[in-house]
Amino acid sequence: MKTKPIPVERAFTAWRADPEYVAAYAALKDEFVLASIMIAARAKAGLTQKELARRMETTQTVIARLEGGRAKPSTRTLERFAAATGTRLRIAFEPAGTARMIGPVRRVKRGASRGPTPPAPR
User: Fold this and answer.
1) Where are the extended beta strands (E) located within the chain?
2) Staple partner for 85: which of 45, 64, 93, 111, CB 3.0–4.6 Å?
């Protein structure tokens, strides 16, 4: 039996009509944003996944998982990523419901101050 391909746009239109699909897609949106920012930072630094992995003392497979959105990086991993790409890690809280992309990645000198250390929780 021969199968007939479905045009991608027609499939997406049908999926977008499904509330479960829409909810699942929205839940993953932030992970996709983080992954795309990480890819852009690596590319701007002129590094391959393998070169980045070597700088972070990890494997290319780990970098691929991070960039594919299949892994949620720890703050420590993001700090190592920033150091390896010559960027600065910035984490911010925003009011719920705001849709804002994180600004451009900027380079800083190694060893530059990251600001005051917050107090330890009691």
Assistant:
1) none
2) 45
Write out pLDDT tens, residues 103-122. 444 444 444 444 444 444 54
Total residues found in the chain within this entry? 122
CB 49 within 8 A of CB 63: yes
Sorted by where each begins, the domain ranges of the chain are 8-85
CATH of domain 8-85: 1.10.260.40
User: Tokens 């703050």 belong to which residue?
Assistant: 75
pLDDT at residue 108 in the model:
45
Q: Which long-range contacts (CB under 8 A, 24 or more apart) does 28-34 make?
A: 28/69, 31/69, 31/72, 32/69, 33/101, 33/102, 34/69, 34/73
Q: How far is CA 42 from the centre of its chain?
A: 11
